Amino acid sequence: AAVNQGGKRKGAACVYLETWHADIEDFLELRDNAGDDSRRTHNLNLANWVPDLFMQRVEADQEWSLFDPRVVPEFTDLYGEAFERAYLQAEAQGKAVKAVPARKLYARMMRTLAETGNGWMTFKDKCNRASNQTLRAGNVIHLSNLCTEILEVTSAEETAVCNLGSINLGNHLDEHGDFDFDKLAETVRLAVRQLDRVIDLNFYPIETARRGNLRWRPVGLGCMGLQDVFFRKRLPFDSDAARALSAKIAEAIYYHALETSCELAQERGRHPSFADTRAASGELQFDAWGVVPADGARWEALRGRIVQHGLRNSLMIAIAPTATIASIAGCYECVEPQVSNLFKRETLSGDFLQVNRYLVGELKQLGLWTAEMRDAIKLADGSIQNLPQIPEALRTVYRTAWELPMRSLIDMAADRGAFIDQSASLNLFMESPNIGAMSSMYMYAWKKGVKTTYYLRSRPATKIAKTTVSSYTPTEAVACSLENPEACEACQ
To answer: Where in this chain does the record put each Ribonucleotide reductase large subunit domain (predicted)?
Structure first.
């Protein structure tokens, strides 16, 4: 990377481009491994800022027009129906530079993802429609951040700032193995108050960042260790029970974050732009998703208090990747499934082989944890699915991301999304990607209302050497991943 941040961690950046831009085809080639290297940006991450109209034309197999932004400068600040009207009008007036089959361009996007893991799919219209900040004309979200969990308005006068924190869900189970929602409420309340103080105590290197942060006072409270919770409760990641618990946790975090922000508004004053937000009229995130929370009476009471007293913060929730802090906390990253039961962790002190401690505990109880079992798991790259000596119920719980249906990850992300007013970093996994399967997967994510996606992992994040099984010598990582310090790790 061009910036090494004092040797502590390499800098990283992501560039977003709208799908109607005349340079979109060249843009999608920037990370290609072949071609003229002077036209490649191997250290720059790419993301697509995709309008609904494009996805609709892909589905209908229609043409898609590309425009010079100097000819249609208004496109950048429009979304939803307003963008659609302006786009159709510009097409009718012959302003397009060229037209391409929408499916051909979409397939090119998929190929970029398959080959590089980059060119992340983020959906412009849902990001704006479901934002608390975009009520007034001119307040527009133009892009997400490096890890696709931050969605905040930007302008020439204001630079968005993400004030992030994450809760370790694995520390919120009681002695009986039940999830402790009372403890979670206490943690959320404390975390929101701390993050709100960060806004006041922070150092701002540029005035536009200070101005935007103090005007909107956004925070991004997220979580990590969801996989730990499922392991301790012996829940398969794609089970109905896991999906329900995931959504219930997301709802609880959102509720207590809003409640605390409302209390802070009464104590210290509402944020200056409260009147310009959807919350001022009582509209909350789940309303944009058409979701009715289970405890309607509790939510209606909170809605009334928010309208009356306001909120201290315009945004509350964002789930970051948490690669670094999850390693420090000793839990699994954000809301993702494990990528392997056996993998290498790179630290400043050296490289270490980590084994899924929950699996080891279960195997020890069954008398199955032996040197032969270790070697068998290592030879299988951390999978236990082809080890018949392990009970089937256990094999189901300890599947890896490569062995889970991506539909279940997308469904869970959409369920949580109704209670996430920014977004969540969502990696998707496909060991042997093909354009057809990928096209269907991202189309499904868009239809489910998912705002943003992150990396497409196309092979395991690490490979364990098999030639000397008993010595457990790990090899280098073979794919771009958050465990690899050369990769993007800028968000926590």
So the answer is: 299-321
Same structural domain for residues 165 and 67?
no
- Position 70 scores a pLDDT of 98
- The predicted pLDDT at position 388 comes to 96
Question: Smallest Cα–Cα separation from 100: which of 73, 61, 74?
Answer: 61
Asked if 111 and 165 sit in the same domain, the reply is no
- Of 126, 150, 174, at which residue does a domain stop? 126
Provide the pairing of β-strand 428-429 with 456-457: parallel
Q: Are residues 243 and 121 in the same domain?
A: no
Residue 341 annotated in active site: no
For residues 51-81, one letter each, b for 16 or more C-beta atoms within 10 angstroms of the residue's C-beta and e for the rest, the string is bbbbbebbeeeeebbbbeeeebeebeebbbe
- CB environment 187-207: b (16+ within 10 A), e (fewer): bbbebbeebbeebeeeeeeee
| The predicted structure's pLDDT at residue 483 | 39
Question: What confidence tens digit (pLDDT) does each residue in 380-406 have?
Answer: 989 999 999 999 999 999 999 999 999
Q: How many CB atoms lie within 10 A of CB 327?
A: 17
Residues 59 and 189 in one domain: no
For this structure, is 145 an active site residue?
Answer: yes
Q: Choose, from 118, 132, 145, 168, the residue flagged as catalytic.
A: 145
Range from 301-310, 333-342, 343-352, 483-492 carrying the lowest mean pLDDT: 483-492
Q: What contacts 32, CB < 8 A, 6 or more positions away?
A: 40, 112, 115, 116
Distance of CA 31 to the CA centre of its chain: 21
Work out how many domains the chain is built from and give that number: 2
R_g of the chain, CA atoms, integer Å: 23
Question: What is the pTM (predicted TM-score) of this model?
Answer: 0.91
Interval 419-476: pLDDT, tens: 999 999 999 999 999 999 999 999 999 999 999 999 999 874 455 555 445 443 433 3
The whole domain housing 410 covers: 161-426+461-492
Same domain, 187 and 81: no
| Claim to verify: residue 72 and residue 183 sit in the same structural domain | no
Establish if 77 belongs to a structural domain.
Answer: yes
185 & 119 share domain: no
Candidates 147, 162, 262, 480; catalytic one: 147
Catalytic residue among 149, 152, 333, 362: 149
Please report which confidence band the pLDDT of residue 39 belongs to, taking 50, 70 and 90 as the band edges: confident
CATH number of the domain within which 178 lies: 3.20.70.20
